[in-house]
Amino acid sequence: MEKTPFKVHAFVCTNDRHGSSKSCADGDSQRIKDELKRALKQAHLWGTLARVSTSGCLGNCAHGPNVYIYPQMQMFTGCTVDDVPEILAAIERNLE
What we know:
By secondary structure, the chain is α+β, with helices and mostly antiparallel strands. Helices cover about 25% and strands about 20% of the residues. α1 (about 30-40) crosses α2. α1 (about 30-40) links the parallel β1 and β2 (about 50-55). The protein has one domain: Glutaredoxin. Strands 2-1-3-4 form a 4-stranded mixed β-sheet, with helices on one face.
């Protein structure tokens, strides 16, 4: 088994319960993931130091969309696309 080459890995929950109860997809979490990935690429961090992946339920759907930064164990809840710069800044701080 090899260690991950990434210093920071952000997981964005895109779980969709299709209206049966609140889920992160209700808050446009896929767009949040796409914008965070774009921002990491623009900052030249994507694929070298940081990564963004789709996640299933992170257990906090009532407060979603949720983004979890690993291994730093930081959770952002109630995220919108407008929060991407703040999440990117947190990722960058964890790379220092």
